[in-house]
Amino acid sequence: xxxxxxxxxxxxxxxxxxxxxxxxxxxITTSAVSQQIAKLERETASRLLERSGxxxxxxxxxxxxxxxxxxxxxxxxxxxxxxxxxxGSVVGRLRVAAFPTAARGIMPRVLGxxxxxxxxxxxxxFEADPKVALPQVQRGEFDLAIVHDWQGSPLPIPDGLEKAPxxxxxxxxxxxAGHPLAGSSSxxxxxxxxxxxxCAPPGDICQVWLTQRLRQSGVEPRIEHDVAEYPTQLxxxxxxxxxxxxxxxxxxxxxxxxxxxxxxxxxxxxxYVVWRAEAARRPAVQAVVAAMRTAVANVEEPQMASPPSAExxxxxxx
Length: 318
What we know:
Protein name: LysR family transcriptional regulator
Pfam family, one: HTH_1
Mean pLDDT: 84
Number of strands: 11
Number of helices: 11
Family: Belongs to the LysR transcriptional regulatory family.
Strand content: 15-25%
CATH architecture of the largest domain: 3-Layer(aba) Sandwich
Structural class: alpha/beta
Largest sheet: 7 strands, mixed
Keywords: DNA-binding, Transcription, Transcription regulation
Number of domains: 3
InterPro entries: LysR_HTH_N, LysR_subst-bd, WH-like_DNA-bd_sf, WH_DNA-bd_sf
């Protein structure tokens, strides 16, 4: 009889192209993956992997087995969901993916709530961008994922997945405190045509959206710095190196040297939670989604950092 863990290991190697990448996704060592493949080769009396340069390639027998493995693993996941739904117990393990600001701004509260309410459920968080997380949810490597898209630029949801809205996250332009528009009640994007922008790296959903939105407004963006982390973007704006557009969620405490100004028309980032359709019946999935909805209902507004007092500055210098 074919072992499911060994089929899962082969499937991961096929999907990610190497033993080390499969090990990262499965959360085990490369040695453990190699051992699973070796055992599967003995079970099937077939050579499944061959050396190819510094990596490996799948044999014809492996490709044949992977096609069956995908269906088998999907059926197992569906059976597990049915059994869990029948028991009605919030138990087992869940793997949850979230992009960085949701991981920081939502998931700590979710994980704490779930641990307190459902001690028999183990929930593990993985930080992953939406484009990476969605296909992994589709393949069953993650049970849930928090993803996002921007107003006017919807994120395609693969077949077999369902989604539910979590939060509309408004975005604002971040300016140095001494910027001429810093005191404005709101600002239009067209007034920022000559500005230098600090933005997420090329290909990131945030930069794609910003570029499209500015061009729709007749503005050709001049992106001077590609920066993935919002705290780094804030630090660079504070240093006068450019401006940025940041959503409120996960932004944290704002440096005293920056101000935020609402944009006209309002800019909104939409957050969703996604899962496989057959997993919707699982009490564990329902419990974590409920905890997410509770968490986003209590998202706090970001606070401005207060300038240090003279006394605290002196104390820090000692």
